[in-house]
């Protein structure tokens, strides 16, 4: 794509209530976009499409230098801190892949929580609004949910009632997004806020988002406003939004994949089971990912889960290699397999094929 192109970059994402999975395809090859902004990322949650527009700020290292600093709220602290220096000054920090990683982290945080990770209650200069903004977003930038330094914590008394509960991190902390996104938020806004080398990459965000979508489960409280929440990994899960505990049998599928025939290793990837939940090609094989390269055939579900007669079942719609263990019984398309505690079954014996171990939690 040439600089100044009017075409947009397509992205694939999954939407369930406030949870968004976006394939960050725009961080591709050796180029980057340095003007992440509110109006540049367009999302249609109903149709499942997203795109980036206004990519005339595309940068190619050594060929097309950045011509914009960025958009306030998304500019990395080191760029803000040195923005008063000349572009020729060796101490001036210009937009780069590392600063884009900060912008991406902010974008994801804001989409999930409807608040900015650095805009808290701390005031650095009451007499100079511009200087206060520069310090807050630059040299003195501090995560509003920092675990030990509470000086920039959100002051709830200053919040509009219309922004609650999302604007209050005490009510909805970043940790509710589960075991995959939580450490990335910490790297982005604690460890890597002032150390660009520690920031998570776009690939890491993509992987964590994919895994997190598989941890989403429906709240059993029909009156819950959010309807869905991320499984925390605890044996007694509770909806963080309405406080409703999960009751009944809860299957959790632990995914393993083959590196060589007959040998499976844990993928640190789980799939929550709920009635109507689907299984796709990227669950069957680790080497398939739900991104812009996914074919139409791979987007079609190959199985689904159903709770029937007080038992959980996986119905095979298109998994050719589904096999139960240890009896090695083939589960043909159209047949089903029961999900019992510690049950094991193979989804595929091909390279990257998955083995599933069922963990059944009862509450």
Automatic annotation (TrEMBL):
Gene3D superfamilies: Transferase(Phosphotransferase) domain 1 (1.10.510.10). Keywords: Kinase, Plasmid, Transferase. It comes from the Bacteria. InterPro entries: Kinase-like_dom_sf. This is Putative kinase protein. GO terms for molecular function: kinase activity.
